[in-house]
Amino acid sequence: MHTAWAQAPIVIKFSHVVATDTPKxxxxxxxxxxxxxxxxxxxxxxxxxxxxxxxDKEELEALQLGAVQMLAPSLAKxxxxxxxxxxxxxxxxxxxxxxxxxxxxxxxxxxxLMQKLEPxxxxxxxxxxxxxxxxxxxxxxxxxxxxxxxRMRIQSSTVLDAQMRALGARPQVLAFSEVYQALExxxxxxxxxxxxxMYTQKMHEVQRxxxxxxxxxxxxxxxxxxxxxxxxxxxxxxxxxxAMAEATAFEKTIAQRDNDLALAAxxxxxxxxxYHPTPQEQAAWRQSLLxxxxxxxxxxxxxxxxxxxxxxxxx
Length: 315
Description:
Blueprint: H1 3-6, E1 10-15, H2 23-38, E2 43-48, H3 56-65, E3 70-71, H4 98-105, H5 108-115, E4 122-137, E5 151-154, H6 158-166, E6 170-173, H7 179-185, E7 190-193, H8 195-200, E8 209-225, H9 226-230, H10 234-269, E9 273-275, H11 279-289, H12 291-295, H13 297-300, H14 302-312
Helix pairs in contact: 2-10
């Protein structure tokens, strides 16, 4: 028996909750292509988009149990897992720019955070981008007071809960796959998302107003089951690491472009009025939301927040 060709390929199930045509969806497909090519078919990557396998809440557990090998959950998901430091990424206005963000994700802070996942049986491979989030609702949101009393969908995150409460809104936690219907039926009044998520999920069809608030960041961590990863032959792991580095560079280039295109497409669709706050209004948003940083110090870590602020200063 020729074991060389009879050897079954190593299968990596890669599950995520967004559409294939989002930055994350496209990068997952790119990783599949690069990984299979680099390992000459010794690895097969099966990508399951759009919550086909698991919804938001279930996917991390599935990874820890080894039911899937790879995920790219949003950074907010690690708080409920007990690694609260990741919630720093959810703090409103913590990253003044993409350059400031990369100083953190690609530097020592980003590395240190990934290491905190190891005791949970998780290995962090890369940070992927989506972009800065905007507020949307069925009424115009020019100033923070406009959110008062609105039911706003958030993903499960103590920080995002505090953020919405700071604006006088009523936060509602919902799985990403349920948001469109909740907006359509009026179960919630609005939400926050980068344009690419909003557009690919057709949320703009059920939201009359969008404010380009850039108030928060949405990013992901590509993670694998640690036992699975450590158990791979060394040469294969190195090839996969290279494929991931390439897929990550690709993901970052398309994330900004996709969000710009999605915002233009939302505008063109004509169902949603897109509003750009004036500098004074933008300052009012910041002023309303910056107290959330102090509020979350005991949870996320005062030193970490300080460290990030230092790292991003002047970028």
